[in-house]
Queue: 4 jobs
Job 1
Amino acid sequence: LVGVFTEPGNTFSKMVKAGAKTTDWIIPILIVILVAILSNIVMMSNPIIKHSIVEKQMQQMEKTFDDMIAKGQLTEAQKEEQMNNVRDRMEQGGMAMNTIFTSIGITIFTFLTFFVVSGVFMLFSKFALKGEGTYKDAMSAYGLPYYIVIIQVIIMMILALVMNKFFTGTSVAEFAGMEKSDLAGFLLSKLDPFSIWFYSVISIGFAKMFKSENTVKYFIMIFGLWIGFGLILFFIAKAVPFLSFLAQ
């Protein structure tokens, strides 16, 4: 744990010799899920934050409905009816039920993202950079830096309570209140010290776990995939309004 923050290179070098273990990634992943769930409960217990979340979701939904009206798929009356129904469900939904569904969502999304991204990074490491490593090595290289995410989530929770604002990151765009659905907001959302730290450690981890002396090419690969796939999702969301959540 300490080595991730202080000496990631030496830490991953020792892991290569000892061999990748399931505990390298399962423990930080489970802690991230637990902290994220607790953070959500704390933030949603704040009425100001809860109201801002509902309003933001309603604005995104209204945009989708307006696009449907423009295409003749929905009438103005139907839009108003559906908007009112959604708002009532959001505002009257019980705290316990919301917590259960949110917790399930966080758990599924975290594990799904972890396994998919680990696989993508492994494929690029093996076939594009000719590294020597396994999927298990990739999971350790990607999973251990999740301890950084834990710190980020805790700081986001503290900021949310102090500023009465729901935080989805610690980027420049988040503090400036810029929408990630705009290109400028998307680009500034990548200027996040914790995300940069997180992917930097991942780059070092993959270079070590896949037995490479050239760390630079792994930095280029990891950051290229992070920003590149983000841009792809951004333009998909722009082209298909129904998938606007991909740009968040």
Job 2
Amino acid sequence: KAVNALLVSLVLGCSTLAQATVVEVTTNVGKFEINLYDESTPVTVQNFLSYVKSGRYDGTVIHRSIPGFVIQGGGFKFDQQLPLKATATNAQIVNEPKWSNVRATIAMAKQPNNPNSATNQWFVNLANNAANLDQQNSGFTVFGQISSTDMAVVDAIAALPRYNFSGIIDLPLRNY
């Protein structure tokens, strides 16, 4: 069967009303904006923006979807065939857990048992995951939020059928 991966493109913007950095995420399902927490999580925001500005997030895919939990992206590209190809990463960054992992927040993924291991993979919380993710692995750094209106796109991604392939579990695909 043909694989129709959820391609992602990110564009940097700035909201003059709130003086906050806004990143627009474009997927095959639709667009959503992320309002970044520039002041409270500066290391994480600068890391995320370095990937956006360099274009390394362009053409990446949402590679993990767990309904009622998270969708995850930033780490892999689809080159018209499986397996997915890992994207290049910057150095790992320090963890900055200041905000709770509640619905509509975006946080950095990291390696188990290594709080300071975030690089390029991010996830959107589909539910209130604070009881788990605020404590696990010294907490996951929330560095932005998506509006309730834009969460409709994220929820549509989370509702897609998921498939498992060698090395990838819970890959959301359209028309597969």
Job 3
Amino acid sequence: MATNVFFSNYNFFNEQQLIDDLVIESIQIYGVDTYYVTRTSAAFDHIMNEDRLTVFDAAYQMDMYVKSVDGLQGEGDFLSKFGLQIRDQATFTVAYRTFERFATRVDPSLIRPKEGDLIYMPMNNKFFKVMFVEHESVFYQTGALQVYDLKCELFEYSNERFETGIDDIDSHYSSFEAIS
């Protein structure tokens, strides 16, 4: 059985643009406002190959769709020999053009979302660390890819600095810094 000759999604930009617009509109309808917070290394140790001081220095507000709408996934809360651990996970979807519009145009070095960056959800006042960026989540049904899927875990604070210029983000962990 041959494919339909009247629809050629792989060769025509207009059909791809239409589907891209529909994906962006559906994320705007069903998504949530988030901040994509970028990470930079202030003191990278090349001998130990570790980052001794992480600074989150820029935040870009954009809309993302939360794929795990049933709540946070993952292993949940459990007791281990190290105490209570919270292993909540979430999957966020952001459109290529949305990321380009709000992040890449401001900082051209941000070609795509990166592992290690954060997503801040003001709705529930939580930070999620990007563990993996799936940039080919669909199998090119329309001849082009429209979205990034960001697989995230709940962020565990460990003396990182926040200097984004947004008070909600920068002051979120200030009580932890005062204690240490």
Job 4
Amino acid sequence: MRIVLAEDQALIREGLVRVLAELDVVLVKTVDNGADAVRVALDEHADVVLMDVDMPVMDGIAAVRELQRERPSIKVLMLSAANSETTILSAIEAGASGYLLKSSVTITQLRQALETLAQGHAHFSPRIVSMMAKWLRERGGPKIGRAHV
């Protein structure tokens, strides 16, 4: 799996580089903004972009939209401290394949998320799945009819 890491905070970026070195992935390049993430992911034929939300030049959500428009086969796994319902739902709507919270993710969970994406599935932290389920319940949708036999 070819990964581009997009993280604007140097200390976190360095830590993630070390974590990714322990996993069975190829770290193509690290960048510190969403615009570079899009450019590098497209130029280097990345499989996955591990992306923060809050970054300069172009934020992570705008970068997800751009990648989905240009090459939807590239998966984007958001890894962010941003945990508001609005931000998370915006990332999902933009086309993110997963979302993990920096405050609670472990190396094992990051590995599992990357493996899940490699298998073609989405991956969200349990806290985000619970948030999405609550959000759907409160809004009364989606409507799923009962099957009649």
